[in-house]
Amino acid sequence: MKSLIQAVVVAVALVAPVASFAQSNAPKTRAEVRAELVQLEKAGYNPAARDNTTYPAEIQAAEARVSAQSAVAQAPVADTSGVGGVAGGSSASGAAQPTSYHDGMKPIYFGQ
């Protein structure tokens, strides 16, 4: 029992530093802040407007538009490689449709 407790303590001690590196509390750089401001301006926010009464609503609306645009941009694109993936679509039940051989071609397994 004592060795189990020691193993758990050692495992936690080894995992704790890895978890701390996953989070970054560093302040944003000037370039990152400038890029965010440019995105907000493209979304319709005007920081030069002198109407302070609508400030919170305007910037929140612009942030919502930017996040919606980034969500659309990060949406998965349909895989057109033809390899793997999940089959989409629907299926129908019922009797098989008769096949006509008007072009003279027969399926590979014809007659088997």
UniProtKB/TrEMBL annotation:
Signal peptide start and end residues: 1-22
Region feature (Disordered): 83-103
Keyword Signal appears in the UniProt entry: yes
InterPro entries documented for this protein: DUF4148
Domain of life: Bacteria
Record's keyword terms, sorted: Signal
Protein name as it appears in the record: DUF4148 domain-containing protein
